[in-house]
Specification:
globular; about 55% strand; single chain; mainly beta; about 0% helix; about 110 residues
Amino acid sequence: QVQLVESGGGLVQPGGSLRLSCAASGSIFSISYMGWYRQAPGKEREWVATITSGGYTNYADSVKGRFTISRDNAKNTVYLQMNSLKPEDTGVYYCYASPTSWGQGTQVTISS
């Protein structure tokens, strides 16, 4: 069993930046990849980005070039650096770890 705890959400103006963190604990040896999903009000949860244990990254087209996913293996933590934020980036951001672990979510609101 893997436990995930997210942090770093908040309210920022359009064009601003935020960095989300996801700390993993428990059976971390079982994790082959981690990443982020988000869910906007009234919409389905959508995939944002993934990073594998080998450091390979992949992004949704909507965030490519603005978001960067990274990991610190020594701290068992994954980060999501979000730049040039837009109102449509608003939502609850969830961290996940393979095969089926999810965090509780952190709210990100982009508004002037």
